[in-house]
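re: that chain from earlier
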Amino acid sequence: MRRYGKNTDEDDIRSRPNRKGNRPRTNIRPKHEDAADGMVLTVDRGRLTVLVDDRIVMAMKARELGRKAAVVGDQVAVIGDLSGKKDTLARIVRIGERTSLLRRTADDDDPYERVVVANADQLAIVTALADPEPRPRLIDRCLVAAYAGGLTPLLVLTKSDLSPPDKLLELYGALDIPYVVTSRQELESGAAVARVREQLDGKITAFVGHSGVGKTTLVNALVPHDQRRSTGHVNAVTGRGRHTTTSALALPLSGGAGWVVDTPGVRSFGLHHVDPSLVIHAFPDLEPGTEGCPRACSHDEPDCALDEWVEKGHADPARLYSLRRLLSTRERTEGD
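^ sequence. v structure.
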């Protein structure tokens, strides 16, 4: 009978032979202290394009990361061949902590989250004032996703030569969202690009919008040295645009003053993943009034304390209307 004590003789321990001839498995993972820092620019079928210093490197996710996936905007640690030469492949071994995360679902009944971009500072919601007609419900959904993900929203209204922006701006005036109005002529002359650029300098900005609103045209104008996107047209019968951007792509603004993330055009923006209670944080003038609300208040019911809060003059009634319109998008089916 073999006995094991504190001073076990290694020769006295029987080890199972490894028939495959490889090293035995271990739970100790390498620290990869020599890994280089990079930023994910785009993802395509398991291959990730990463900017490492001033080189574009193709990489794949290391098996040790498990199900954790890197997305556009992620700060990652990369090992392997970092030369950026053709047919070379590196490995992503770590994904940095994220400061923000823009997510969406296909619809409100779909539990599967689709991560659009990580670490973006703001979300530019591009909307045409005509051709196609603006869709306030889609704008509201993008706003909710921005607030929930930690991004600052920015409205970019295009095609003002076809329709004035006053009516749409009135809907969002109470939210104090920064906005830029552009026309097709201004895009061609560069005047609109300069105004939009002022809102982007020094930030990572994700662009999102319904197909056909001119999002990709604007991105191409902002990043003329790297026009990788084709532009489409709006169907005269359906009023819908054709998807011309198939995957998210981060592009640097000239002078290294910021990043633009072009995302695929959307026809719906599901909010299954969003906790409605987080939306109130975007309304600091209304949030104190919720202290008198009943437990689990939806902020749109007879006992909601926000009605009295507004009646006493603590906040503009338009702000409460805006809050309830945004919250209602969580339950409403996307239609217009």
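Residues 136-149 form the longest helix (14 residues).
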